[in-house]
C-alpha cells in the first residue's frame, strides 16, 4: 500500500510541474490553430509571377482608386471605421524598393506566412530560404522560445537561426492563434521577448513587426479568431514596435474589404489563409512601404 501511495504522489508532482512549464506566456492548449495551405507548385492562371511588376497594394484595383476602399496616404478613415496607424515606428509609403528589397527579407511566422513558400511567392520558389516556419507550417506566439523553424541547416530555435544567419531584415507575422486565448499583457510580453531574443543574437537585424492579416466570417474558428480580436492584437503589436524601436507594417490594410474582413479574392478558400493574389498584395505593400 505504501508503494501505491508513493507512486500516486509522484505522478501528481510530475503533473503539477508540467502544468507550470506549459503555462508560460499562455498555454495554447485546446486552442484552434491554423494549418498550412495546400502546396501549389505553379502560379494559377491569371496570377502575377513572383518578382514581376503589378499594381502596388493589390490586384483588380481600378486606376486612381485605393484598393478595397482602404485608407489613402493622407490618413483618412476606412469605411470600416478603423484609423490608419501613425507614428515614427509605422512604415510609411516609399518609392518602390523593388524585388531586390523583397529578396533581402526573411519571413518568420505561422501558417499565414507558410503560404509564401507553398505558393512559390519568393525567389527560390518552394525551395526558398526566406521563410522561417516550423516543419508543420504553423507557430503560436506563446511558444516563441521553444519552437523551431526550418532553415537550410535543419530546424533551429528562432534565436539560434537568428544567430546563425544574421538576417538583414526579419518580417515577423505572428499572433493570429494567440488572439483566441492571450490577454494583452501576455501577448505583449511574448512578442517583446521574441524581439529581444532575436536582437540579442543578431543586433543589426532590422525587424518589421507585420500586422496580423484579417480573416472572413466563414472561417471555421471565427468565434475565437475574429477580426475584432485581430484588430485589437494589431494595436498591441504597434505598441510593442514603438517600445522596442522596431517598425510596424500595416499590410492588413490592403487585404480588407469594405467591412474590414479579408477580401474573398485574397483568400485561398478556407476563410483565413491568403491566396497567391493576397500574398502579391502583401509583397507589393512591403516594397512600397520599405524599411530603408
Write the layout of secondary structure elements.
Layout: H1 2-22, H2 98-102, E1 105-109, H3 111-118, E2 131-132, E3 148-151, E4 154-157, H4 158-165, E5 169-173, H5 184-201, E6 206-210, H6 227-244, E7 247-249, H7 276-288
Question: What does this protein structure show overall?
Answer:
- With 292 residues, the chain is α/β, with parallel strands linked by helices.
- It has one domain (83-288): Rossmann fold, CATH 3.40.50.
- Helices cover 31% and strands 10% of the residues.
- The chain contains seven helices and seven strands; from the N terminus they run ααβαβββαβαβαβα.
- The chain has helices at residues 2-22, 98-102, 111-118, 158-165, 184-201, 227-244, 276-288, and strands at 105-109, 131-132, 148-151, 154-157, 169-173, 206-210, 247-249.
- A five-stranded parallel sheet has the order 2-1-5-6-7, with helices on both faces. The protein has a two-stranded antiparallel sheet with strand order 3-4.
- Strand 1 (105-109), helix 3 and strand 2 form a beta-alpha-beta unit.
- Helix 4 runs parallel beside helix 5 (184-201) and helix 5 crosses helix 6 (227-244).
